[in-house]
Write a structure and sequence with these properties.
The chain has 50 residues and is mainly beta. The protein has a single domain, classed as N-terminal domain of TfIIb (Single Sheet), CATH 2.20.25. The protein has one helix spanning 3-7, and strands spanning 20-23, 28-31, 37-41, 44-45. It has a four-stranded antiparallel beta sheet, with no helix packed on it. The longest helix has 5 residues, at 3-7. It binds zinc ion. Residues 13, 15-16, 18, 31, 33-34, 36 line the site of zinc ion.
Amino acid sequence: MNWIEKYIEILQCPYCRGDLYLDKDKNKLICKKCGKVYDIIDGIPILLRY
Ligand SMILES: [Zn+2]
């Protein structure tokens, strides 16, 4: 288990504060609420507004 899976519950979407889930196939985090997709680069989720 990598750290993202361990801490997924405390990560939240920077736009809407919604919960995120990990798409392991695409290696991305996706917001359950607004559907925004965040890349994971070298194991670090990029949770930035841009
Ligand atoms: Zn969101």
